[in-house]
Amino acid sequence: MSILDKFIRDLTAGRIRVIDLTQTLSPEFPQISLPPEMGQAWPFRIEEVSRYDERGPAWYWNNFSCGEHTGTHFDAPVHWVSGKDLPQNATDSIAPQRFIGPACVLDCSREAAADADFLLTVKWIKGWEKKHGRIPPLAWVLMRTDWSKRSADPLEYQNYDETGQHTPGPDTDAVNFLVGERDLLGFGTESIGTDAGQAYHLRPPYPCHYYLHGAGRYGLQCLTNLDQLPPTGAVVVAAPLKIRNGSGSPLRVLALTESK
Amino acid sequence: MLEKPKRKNPVLRTRLPTLPPAARSRVALGLTAAAALGRFELQQCRDCAMVQYPPREACQQCLSVHLPWRPQPGEGELLSSTVLHHSNDLFFRERLPWRLGLVHLDSGPTVVAHLHGGVPPAPARVRVAARLDRAGQAVLVALPEKETSSMADDRQLREFTCDPRLRKVLVTDGKTATGQALVQALAAAGAELIWVGYAEPWKKFPGFDELNRVSQATLLPLDVTDSKNVRELAAEIGGKVDIVVNNAEHHRAFGISNRSGVEAARAEMDVNYFGLLRLAQEFGPAMRLRGADGLANAVAWVNVLSIYALANFPPHGTAAHSLAQCLRAEMRPAGVRVVNVFPGPIDDEWNQLVPPPKLAAVALANAIVGALRDGIEDVYPGDVAQEWLARWRDNPKALERELS
Question: Given CB atoms, is B258 within the 8 Å cutoff of chain A?
Answer without folding.
Answer: no
